[in-house]
Amino acid sequence: MAAQPVGRYKIGPITEKDTLIEYAITPRSTVKSLQVGDAIQHLAPGSEDNSFNTCRNFSEAIASLASVVCTALSFLPDIREILPLIQYMPVYDDDVFIIAHAKTGTHWTWEIVNMLMKGSTDYEKMSKARRQLEFHYPDEFKDMPRPRVFNSHLLLHHIPKQAIEKKCKVTVVQRNPKDTIVSLFYHM
The domain at 79-187 falls in which architecture? Predict the structure, then answer.
């Protein structure tokens, strides 16, 4: 099987002329559309200034959001294609999986598990997103040093089937739904 292209959005090509989002600044104003090209020009990927807190008005906040969405969509694989590949991904006996809904403490858990696996209190140098199952093709994980610690916001039955068969360590993080909603609200 040929290697899958890394980081391609599969639903369709996105061009700079495509409308990314439509918004109205006030109820009386006309609806304005924001094109992908405008979002890319507002905040270039990798820019240090990607925080909504630095925006001076609602229009800038929308443009910032659009640029983040645009950047994410252009690099993430299509979930419809990646899910079957994840389920049949080969795993090792010493692999660890952290399954959690967003804003339930995934990052804290990921850091703690990495510290326990290394036997050191040093923070992990590799980004958590680089080991998130749904963000990558399984081929990208095969050269990763072992033991590998993965994380995912997918459901438990979406992780690789071999993880259950080989009795890999699986940590499911749960949090009070009220606290999760509050955390998600302040994250937005």
Answer: 3-Layer(aba) Sandwich (3.40)
- Which residue among 42, 107, 153, 187 is the active-site one? 153
Q: Is 153 a catalytic residue?
A: yes
pLDDT digits (tens, 9 = 90+) for 87-124: 999 999 999 999 999 999 999 999 999 999 999 998 88
| Structure tokens that stand for 143 in this block | 């050269």
Query: For 57-67, what is each residue's pLDDT tens digit?
Result: 555 555 555 55
For residue 152, the cross-strand partners are 99
The radius of gyration of the chain's CA atoms, rounded to the nearest angstrom, is 19
pTM of the full structure = 0.61
Rounded-to-integer distance, Cα 169 and Cα 188, Å:
32
Q: What does the DSSP assignment read for the chain? A: -PPPPTT---S----TTSEEEEE-SSTTSPPEEEEHHHHHHHS-TT-S---GGG-SSHHHHHHHHHHHHHHHHHHSPPHHHHHHHHHT----TT-EEEEE-TTSSHHHHHHHHHHHHHTS-PPPSS-GGGGBGGGS-GGGGTTSPSSPEEEESS-GGGS-HHHHHTT-EEEEE---HHHHHHHHHHH-
> Domain segments of the chain: what residues?
19-75, 79-187
